Automatic annotation (TrEMBL):
Active-site residues (renumbered): D141, R143
Cofactor note: Binds 1 zinc ion per subunit.
Residues given in the record as Zn(2+) binding sites: C68, C79, C81
Encoding gene, per UniProt annotation: ribA
Protein name per the record: GTP cyclohydrolase-2
Entries under InterPro entries matching the protein: GTP_cyclohydro_II, RibA, RibA-like_sf
Species the sequence originates in: Streptomyces edwardsiae
Enzyme Commission (EC) number: 3.5.4.25
Residues in GTP cyclohydrolase II domain copies: 19-185
Signal peptide: none
Length: 219
């Protein structure tokens, strides 16, 4: 099939970055948000930011939440993702203003749903989450936060109070031009099913999880 060209015989220029597509009210159990939908033209992913109240430009309470079907939708105790998402939405509503950017394409730290399930199967056999990714030939963390920064810039956000335990998210936002005024801990009490995973995140991925010291009895 011949590709269509413009009137001057040039191929149409490919779009890049994120494009705002729609803004719709989204009442939730946490409060009334605005769901702002975006197309990420670089990766082909559809993205959404949940905006609460008048967010302003500086020191905006913000969560960058990586998509996690098993945790967010199914209540998996293998990770703390679902509880973190709920806690972030509650915190934004309690604050009266803020943003939760839900990042699709980040499943399993960027390796996809099936890749994550394969990694979880290896973890059940004794590997930790880092070893499992490497054994499958995946990067330890393949996530990119360029789209998140583009969404925040489109929303007029210049600096954030970032709800995260992951210093790499902070570093990524700064690289993409969003200042981080504060990193706000988002600590979820661990359980027997995720304590090993959380300890690996602290010891091998540099997550700040000081609350794990108080639960040494969990195996």
């Amino acid at each position: 099939m011949t590709e269509k060209v413009g009137v001057l015989g040039k191929k149409p220029q490919r779009r890049t970055g994120v494009e705002r597509v729609v803004n719709a009210p989204l009442p939730t159990v946490y409060g009334k948000f605005q769901a702002v939908g975006y197309m990420d033209h670089d990766r082909g992913d559809e993205q959404v930011a949940l905006v609460y109240g008048d967010i302003g430009t500086d020191g905006v309470l913000t969560r960058l939440h990586s998509e996690c079907l098993t945790g967010d939708a199914f209540g998996s105790q293998h990770c703390e993702c679902g509880d973190q998402l709920a806690s972030a939405l509650r915190a934004v509503a309690a604050e009266g203003a803020g943003v939760v950017v839900y990042l699709r394409g980040h499943e399993g730290r960027g390796i996809g749903l099936l890749g994550k399930l394969r990694a979880m199967a290896l973890q059940a056999e004794g590997l930790d989450t880092v070893e499992a990714n490497v054994a499958l030939g995946f990067p330890v963390d393949a996530r990119d936060y360029g789209a998140a920064a583009g969404i925040l810039q489109d929303l007029g956000v210049r600096s954030v109070r970032l709800m995260s335990n992951n210093p790499r998210k902070r570093e990524a936002l700064i690289r993409h031009g969003i200042q981080v005024a504060e990193q706000v801990p988002l600590l979820i009490p661990p359980c027997e099913n995720n304590i090993t995973y959380l300890r690996t995140k602290r010891e091998r991925l540099d997550h700040h999880l000081p609350h794990l010291d108080a639960v040494a009895h969990l195996s």
